């Protein structure tokens, strides 16, 4: 999960401000009219629907698509597109509801050229009735329908709670029997400095603690994935399931739950370190003592969720993060995350060994404070990334051991869409992260962070998908392995939005026809030998990212259409 101006959301482009429900309507209507006048100077005309109040710009460029012709493009330029299903497509009581509605929507996706769907397979639903008691029946019904329609499946092993983060409109807790253990031993959960527990997922500190009916957390995750393979073997054998995304933390992401809305966090707060349970305290004290500094303790000057860096002793100018003690802590904190991901992915590799699937892991796009020297929000989440230190390449190197795909977020975002005081840098962040994945010779995939329906956002995704454009003579120099659009909804399927989305899918496919044979993974091989922590940390040396073109060569809409999108973003999203 990653955030932009989340409290504001995104606009239904072309809709008058009174329809959009913005505050300060008179002021915004005045701004809207000003934007309209500016566009009229660009020879754009308007059409107004009297019943809805919707005004749209009409220009030849608005429907124009650009890029190479079909006959000139090799299949190697094709980027498959998946669509994330609603969080509660399987209800909390383990029922596949609204099957008729889903079948209709899946058919629309298939007709639009979409390659497949992604779905959370909730631990809190499947193993709700007790340790080792799995009920996969509802998910089997869902997969049967998806297979019937001809879509492929990306399945997320969701070992986390749904609820408490941006975009979570339903609540699905982790299993009650796990929460009951936490009542007697709350240190199984991530904990901040004030002692507040986060019950979204288990702390990585208990990965190897036999606290769960004699099982460790790692054994729980392993057993769950092995049961999934056994019960979904027919879908795996037929190639319907092509990707297993392994949940590694809150929102399924490899990170600490440092910025949780339910605990009061608001954008662009720096978040808080989550290592103050008794197991993490003991581990840190042991590591510090071994390093000859038994006097060192966990940070007490890093502020609270909604501080800015300069307000803290840890992240401020000449802050603790630059001292020997601070560097030791941050190396320890981020290394624990690497080991956590490595262990679970090794179990996933064993569980799905020989299956024709890819393994993937999702990493959050924490773009706020990226342009601050401290990178504070990244550091509290466990990404020890600074201007002179790469916090993401060690993750990519770890993933390479398991033939894993690096799945990153916030692909749709541009720097200009965020307030200057947040020092956001989503464009540079995406460029850095995708580059290190390619440098480690692994597949890189991604998602949008927030629901967007406009060409301005789609064009940014298209640029990131092929940073140097389409290659008419063979494989592009750089290309993402896939894109998952967040998410399927009634709003996406509205005629105007869906027309734009279908054009986007076609452009992701490099104007090629849908190719069901494109995404066919080879049988998964056994993970390579363990990579020492020293070797992983060697990857922290910062290198220049690959160059990006200024804009995609597969643009949706013309220059004036994008100009309109930018004006609406400027006048409305900033209010």
Automatic annotation (TrEMBL):
Pfam families: Glyco_hydro_14. It is an enzyme of class 3 (hydrolase). Keywords: Carbohydrate metabolism, Glycosidase, Hydrolase, Polysaccharide degradation. Coiled coil: none annotated. It catalyses: Hydrolysis of (1->4)-alpha-D-glucosidic linkages in polysaccharides so as to remove successive maltose units from the non-reducing ends of the chains. Its EC number is 3.2.1.2. PANTHER family: BETA-AMYLASE 1, CHLOROPLASTIC, BETA-AMYLASE 6. Belongs to the glycosyl hydrolase 14 family. This is Beta-amylase.
